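Box S1 | Example of a co-folding query
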Amino acid sequence: MWYSLSAVVTLLCIASVVQGLDLKSANDQPCFNIPTPKTPKLDEKWVHSTHPMYFPVMSTNSLYRVSLNVLQKEAKDVGFATVYYDACLKWDMYDNGTIFSTGFNGLRKEYKTKTLVDNPDAFTFVGEGGYKDFYSGTLYTTLTDNKSFFFATVCMNNREMSWGVASTTPTLTEETKKKIFDHAVSLGFNKEDFTELKYDTCEN
Ligand SMILES: *[C@@H]1O[C@H](CO)[C@@H](O)[C@H](O)[C@H]1NC(C)=O
Ligand SMILES: *[C@@H]1O[C@H](CO)[C@@H](O)[C@H](O)[C@H]1NC(C)=O
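Box S1 (continued) | Returned holo structure for 2-acetamido-2-deoxy-beta-D-glucopyranose
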């Protein structure tokens, strides 16, 4: 009895170790239209001069997809714990249209962006490498204070909508988080897919 029970426990442990990221259960809803603002929401000078920006809160879908793009791996080959403990994702955005995402102990991937003609707060972005389709699409800034964070609503090339927040600090105040979560809910994003990335175990 004892032996069979411990065998079951061992099997369960092995199963949870080899199980990859579940992109299907982290799916967000289909892309919806974002209204074009009359004046820009985002101060681009601020964004382009802030290095790095952290990625403290987002939809699970965004976290998985950005991670897979940095790792250049299939979802089935990446464990859940790896993402939460080793991702340590950071962004660097430049006025020449280049964005870098760094994480997993110094891995770096580049994105090329192009501003939309009819919306200064929106740009298309394309990653590099064979797994670029994990995270390419159109990003709309829908909320910002121009000094500590901006909220990006993303319609990915697979026509799913997701979101993420870039911030100057690795943690956010409860007040800012509430503002962000309320905004995400108001856009129609599912609370069950909200997630946070911690930086306390990051080496750099
Ligand atoms: C942020 O900066 C943009 C561009 O300068 C400006 O139009 C917008 O009103 C600013 N928003 C806030 C909340 O400061
Ligand atoms: C844009 O600027 C960054 C930072 O200086 C640089 O690393 C990157 O190579 C540049 N990209 C292009 C396409 O010139």
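The longest helix spans residues 2-18. The chain has one domain: 30-196.
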